[in-house]
Amino acid sequence: MLIVILLLAASGYIAFWWHQETLLNKPWVPDPDSILFGQRPLPPLMTSPHPILTHTPLRTQGRNIVDSRDERFKLASVNWYGGSDELFIPGGLDIQHRSSIAKTIRHLGFNSVRLPYADEMVMTNPPILPHLLAANADLVGLRALDIFEAVVNSLTDEGLAVIINNHITHSTWCCGADPCDGLWHNDHLGSICRVRMTEDEWIENWEIIMEPHVKNPLVIGADLRNEVRSLWGTLSWDTWAAAAERAGNRLLAMNPDWLIIVGGTGSGNFLTEAGARPVELSVPSRVVYSAHVYGWSGWGSSEGRYAKRPYASFVKSMRDNWGYLLEQDIAPVWIGEFGAPDKPSEGDAHYWKNLMRYLATVDADFGYWALNPRKPKDNLKESYSLVQDDWETPVLDYRMRDMRKLMLQ
């Protein structure tokens, strides 16, 4: 009889779970305001309180990033990926000139760009096939590092601030289950990693990729490592914070004006211990923390992933993970990655609505993932894209509508 009761209870739970998942995966019906936004040309952000950066250098002041006049510079960023992937260069250089892509980013209203790279790209610096540079003939014949530098310069020539991001060790899509890419080093894993790297080599790669930009005032910082992670619960915050201090101090020896951006552990989610054990550098007022928030974040917790949580539960998680750093005026937090598809499910839209509401409440710096309309591997469609395949025409929907509101805040 007990077995029957347990089987019935399990069946009931599975049926309930299946029903909830079905509801979350239903296509979201856009609201009238989103539809109207997509039918109009994108207006310029004439009244943005956080325009293009003109007064450098930046530093931190409590929860804010401020410029040389002590006025807040709110990061309204977009990710432009590719330098961390299989083709070794930022995407779209076969479709548009890099300066045209920079102009498109400005037109969308962003004031800064997060530009990822892979350690393999730095360590091998491969030549790039000419067809990948079809719209950038002046780059044909150059190697990956030269092209990365040219892209950075095109962005800053357009007035955009640039944050360079060490995204992954191997040049591939991030982030999978490969333990060789989870940390900033993998020498403890021996020969199982195709690209092997010590912590010192990781820092040396940082020095190589930042050296050309030492005198560029709009290269404002280094996002030290994307989504550090290890086997569940085995990476301590103190271990990562100490490594961030060693890397950060080496970079500040090159340029003491750079911001050093330190992501949370657990795939960028957790900064819960940063208040008690802050990252401390040789130059004060340089640490910015970063968190990533997606609809699938929160999986494995008792309350489930963010796509299904009510707002109160979502807010509690944000405050526990990183929001307290803003509320207590401890340090800036940049949401360096978040995003949603152009055709969202009910769960996607629910997560997005909660995140936008919270970001507006705490007035956080942010970085949307991503600009790219295609993924490097197999040219797959990127549903999170903000531009169409021509790398110029904006995708105008609920996402740009809501981010414009954050930009104007």
Please describe what this structure looks like.
With 409 residues, this protein is an alpha/beta fold. It has a single domain, classed as Alpha-Beta Barrel (TIM Barrel). Helix content is 34%, strand content 12%. The chain has helices at residues 2-24, 32-38, 98-108, 119-124, 144-157, 199-210, 237-254, 265-268, 311-327, 346-362, 398-407, and strands at 59-61, 64-66, 76-79, 112-118, 161-168, 219-223, 259-263, 287-292, 333-337, 365-368. The strands form two sheets. The protein has an eight-stranded parallel barrel. The chain has a two-stranded antiparallel sheet with strand order 1-2. Helix 9 links the parallel strand 8 and strand 9. It is globular. Residues 9-13 and 15-19 have low confidence and may be disordered.
Task: Compose a concise summary of this entry.
By secondary structure, the protein is α/β, with parallel strands linked by helices.
